[in-house]
Amino acid sequence: MSKILIMLNVNGRSHEIACEPNTLLLDCLRQDLGLTGSKRACDDSSCGACTVQIDGVPMLSCALLAVSCQGQRITTIEGVAEHGSLSALQKAYSDWGGSQCGYCTPGFMMTVNALLSETPDPTDEQIGAALSSNLCRCTGYVQMIQAIKAAIRAEQQGRAAKRA
Amino acid sequence: MQKKSAKTHLTLNVNGKEHQLLVNPRQTLLGALRDVLGLTGTKQGCDDGTCGTCTVIVNGAMARACRVPVARVKGKAVLTIEGLGTPERLHPLQEAFIKADAVQCGFCTPGVIMAAKALLDRNPAPTREQIVKALGSNLCRCTGYTSILEAVTRAADLGRGVPCPEPQVSDEAHRRADAQDKVLGTALYAADLTMPGILHGAVLRSPHPRADILHIDDREARALPGVAAVVTARDVPGLNRFGRTVKDQPVLADGRVRQIGDAVAAVAATSAETAAQALSLIRVSYQPLPAILDPSEALKEGAPLVHDSGNLLAEREVHWGDVETALAQADIVVDETYTTPFCEHAYLEPESALAYRDNEGRLVVRSATQHSHLHRRIVAETMDLPLEQVRILPTVVGGAFGGKTDVSCECVAALLALKTGHPVKIVYSRAESFSSTTKRHPFRMRCRTGVTRDGRLTALAAEVLADTGAYASAGPEIMIRAFVSLVGPYQFPHVLIHGRVVYTNNTLAGAMRGFGAPQVAFAIESQMDIMAAKLGIDPLEFRLMNRRKSNAAEATPQDMEQEEAYRGTLEAVRPYYEDALRARQASAPSDGRRRRGVGIASMRYGIGYATAQPPETALELESDGRVRLFTGAIDMGQGTDTALALVVSGELALPLESVSVVSGDTTRTPDTGPSSGSRVIYTEGNAVKEAAARLKEAILSTASGLLEIPSENLELREGLVVTRRTAGACERRMSLAEVARARLSAGLPLRFEGSFHPVPVRDSLSGNPSPYLVHVSATHMAEVEVDTLKGTVRVLRVVAAHDVGRVIFAQGLKGQIEGAVSMGMGLALKEEFHPGETKGFKQYRIPTMRETPEVVPLMVEMVDPSASLGAKGVAECATVAVAPAIANAIADAMGIRIHHLPATPPRLVALIGGAMHS
After folding, report:
1. How far apart are CA A7 and CA A16, in angstroms?
2. B72 and B178 share a domain?
3. Contact B197/A18, CB-based, under 8 Å?
């Protein structure tokens, strides 16, 4: 198949890529851009390990064509921590044991990150509903949820401190 | 919002496969192959099309991939080394290169093979001249081209079904383990490595030899999209000074630059192009200062100081006897002054490093190094990390010759990786490799030697001045080495040598093949010939009668062996010498324009540092019966991995392919000191032998228990434990795999260590403690033809007789001598580096295949009694006597004496003109 030239905006930077029209966004990120934080784990859009954000909305990059993402803002796990400092969520994950083998973690991060930017103080049900799109086989989700709640508290305290 | 792309989209046919690429139209074919398609077998060795490491075939014709814009090969068929053969089915050329041992460091190999393929495709039966013509512009710095010529001839014969004679030195079992990867282009050098999220580093360098840095403005560079970090001296977290012994070189210059090429700032960016663009945006204000460029000026009162410690880096004196009286009483005194230039190692692989944090948080640096443990200490100290947090994981080394003992880009790559949290790769351009890395020390040597009328040497007085450039590097060491080689293999009853190594603002000088010895050998061997001529004694006889002799009452077996071995080298050369003299007589030309000359030179060289820590090594028996050697010694093409594996296979009677070698990884191998000064086979070789003996004892003891046969009735043969043939009628056997599994299940150790604790020796002539553990000698003969009109010199033949102790790896030994002869020829006739001016292979011409003489390596085997292995080393020593033999041959042809190396055509023409006028 003949390749086409596309332009993707990933983590705030523009990239020119020659790819086949049927290339998945996940493959394009991992192979053409070397952004291997997004993982491939199921091949049928059921596990969430490949979750990225498209214009702030969590989407499965294994279920998107790269060509269809032109002109949109793509954010991957590599774009969450900038300049080497962890986001509150990333810090809470490590404090609370939210991550064990770590393979599902980037996908969860992208899901939760989107949830918290939309709903800064979610209910347990909202958290549960958001996380239902991602699978984890190690943590049993308990410490992950504790981590998310800790991150929410940290953010709230941060906002309160700013207001004071 | 879609802006118009500057890139073009094209289809490329590479190795029979279509690839669709998106490239910058100015992108070179080399860049597209390496960076876009990941075909890293094609190498980048220079930046101006002079080295040939990037040779590929385009539509059947040879092309330099670095000079071809990728857009121009659209629709054409490109063949790279990866398209030639496979591990299962090597191309006849690849087969022939392995068989003729035409592969050492391997960096030039893919390009040379492709050039040869293009030749054989259009001319299946080339003559030697046609091969030389076709491959004459592909540079190789290791092999000296002899084995390459042999390989191409073999491949041509094979291709036409002509039976060809076996190579001169051939043993199927002695093939280099790494040769196959190198001929296939799959051997990975540091520049070939990549990682997800990789950033590209680049270094901004000083254009001034001496200047104060007033201000660095990096704001524009930081703002450039794609730039991840800009670093200067204040970002260096640890000690911003490093060095082999004297820590005087900054990772990034702090306040003052001391040489052209000093690193001032560095950037990491998402592409090499962006990094280069960022460098151009950094504004540095310098206040240029008066620079010291002449070493004899450096010690004068009021001279500007290169470092606050003063311009004298090292001073050394040795003396015995009463030189001035002896010189006053000598019948003839020869008083001459000689100089040698800065030289560049010119390995084909430019310095490169990849640095990153591994999963354990450890900083990993992957680069070509000759001493990984030294690099670890330097990286840890400059980055302020505990030693354990740094791992140096060496890559394949594309030639080193002393130049990769010092660190080059490793610390900067490490700093950028720590700063950005990303893997960072730095690949030096050829110009950077020339401007910023170590050179051979230029020497100025005044020698006064006295001799009696009947030809007995009486005294040597010498004053030596060496220019170490801006930083110490191996400066202090070279003078120690120089003193040993200045006295040489001769009996001087009275000696006084005074040597100084001084700082200047020239490019730093460090270790380069023979460091210190080739320079002084030029001086002393010229003196020997001048004295012989004045006395009317044949140069070979003169050397023979003045060879050093120990006081018989105190001589050790080692002294005796070394003296006999030197005599052996003279006698080995003698028949060739006598033939050459006869041939020169017969070929006396009528027109007088071309004149033939024959020259002899000897040398003595110290091996193994008496003060270095004893080498250690480990061997592991694996469950499949294979043996793995863990050594800190590094194979940079000289073949130590193979040589050490041969020591193991010899001790354990194993096939060579059953031994694998882990070399230099600082987490898995002990520090065995630098792989330099021809020491590996002597020091590490003996440690490996001891480890192998321990492993052998363990294997026999386990097998003895299992077979219920006393271990003295068992032996190792062809990878098996077997009953001794004399022990009984019925042979019993057991594989090493069975032994390994038995030891494993019994909880017995499978790993055995070995070390080597040599006895320090005294120099038998001076009585002083020797700085080296053992000495080797050599005698070389060169036959040359001088074109008196043009001043050009053609070296026809070099006969090189070496005292090697015992031969371990015959092909490697031959290859080292051939390569060293080529490098010595460069020193004699061509190579001269000028700081700030010499920027690449266009100005710095190294020998090509066109100048390759016939090389006759002769091994003088007299087993060294000081250590059980009996082998001594050759890699550096083989360079030492080449240039003086050529200088002596020119003197023989022309009756004129060269005092300054190299003997370039303008210099020779001037000398010949001067001789005619006087």
Report:
1. 5
2. yes
3. no
Statement: residue B729 has pLDDT above 70: no
Give me the mean pLDDT over the B416-431 stretch: 97
Q: Where do runs of H (alpha helix) occur along B188-330?
A: 219-223, 272-280, 295-298, 323-329
What are the chain B neighbours of A73 within 8 Å (beta carbons)?
Answer: none
Distance CA B203, CA B222 (A): 14
Cis peptide before B476 (omega within 30 of 0): no
Identify all chain B residues contacting A4, using CB atoms and an 8 Å cutoff: 9
Q: Based on the domain organization, do B715 and B834 belong to the same domain?
A: no
Q: Which of A16, A70, A84 sits opposite B22 (nearest CB)?
A: A16
Give the best residue of B7, B21, B22 to mutate against chain A (max A CB count within 10 A). Answer: B22
User: Pairing between strand B854-860 and B792-803?
Assistant: parallel
Residue with token string 């043009």: B790
The verdict on B359 touching A (C-beta cutoff 8 Å) is no
Candidates B2, B9, B197; nearest CB to A3 = B9
Find the helix or strand (DSSP H, E) in which B836 lies. none
Nearest to B20 among A3, A35, A70 (CB): A3
> Structure pTM?
0.92
The answer to whether B9 contacts A36, with C-beta atoms less than 8 Å apart, is no
Q: Which residues contact A2 (CB under 8 A, 6 or more apart)?
A: A20, B20
Only one residue has tokens 């004892």, namely: B697
Q: Cα–Cα distance between B634 and B629 in angstroms, integer?
A: 12
Count Cβ atoms below 10 Å from residue B53 Cβ, excluding itself: 27
Q: Once rounded to an integer, what is the mean pLDDT over residues B527-544?
A: 98
Separation between Cα atoms, residue B534 and residue B537, nearest integer Å: 8
Answer yes or no: do B600 and B736 share one domain: no
Chain B, residues 147-206, CB within 8 A of chain A, namely 195-198
Q: Is the pLDDT of residue B727 over 60?
A: no
Whether residue A164 lies inside any domain: the answer is no
Could you tell me if B845 and B908 lie in one domain? yes
User: B795 by DSSP, 3-state: which?
Assistant: strand
Residues 6+ apart with CB under 8 A from B219: none
Q: Where do runs of H (alpha helix) occur along B136-217?
A: 146-159, 179-184
A59 and A103 part of one domain: no
Structural domain span for residue A36: 4-79
Q: Considering the domain boundaries, does residue A132 fall inside one?
A: yes
Which of A22, A48, A79 is the last residue in one of the domains?
A79
**CATH code of the domain containing A17:** 3.10.20.30
ipTM of the predicted assembly exceeds 0.85: no
Statement to judge: residues B263 and B214 lie in one domain = yes
Identify the closest residue of chain B to A29 by CA–CA distance.
B196
Distances in Å between the Cα of B5 and the Cα atoms of A8, A15, B594 are 12, 10, 62
Cβ of B25 under 8 Å from any chain A Cβ? no
Tell me the per-residue pLDDT of A114-128, one tens digit each, with 9 for 90 and over. Answer: 999 999 999 999 999
pLDDT digits (tens, 9 = 90+) for B271-296: 999 999 999 999 999 999 999 999 99
**Number of structural domains chain B divides into:** 5
Residues B235 and B222: their CA atoms lie apart, in Å, by 14
CATH code of B570's domain: 3.30.365.10
Torsion (CA) B700, B703, B704, B706 in degrees, nearest 10? 170
Contacts of B22 in chain A (CB under 8 A): 3, 5, 16-18
Contacts of B2 in chain A (CB under 8 A): 7, 70-71
* Type of residue found at B679: R
Do B151 and B59 belong together in one domain? yes
- Distance (Å) from the C-alpha of residue A83 to the closest C-alpha of chain B? 7
Residue among B1, B22, B270 whose CB faces A17 most closely: B22
Q: Looking at the 3D structure of chain A, how many domains does it have?
A: 2
For residue B236, the enclosing domain spans 192-291+357-436
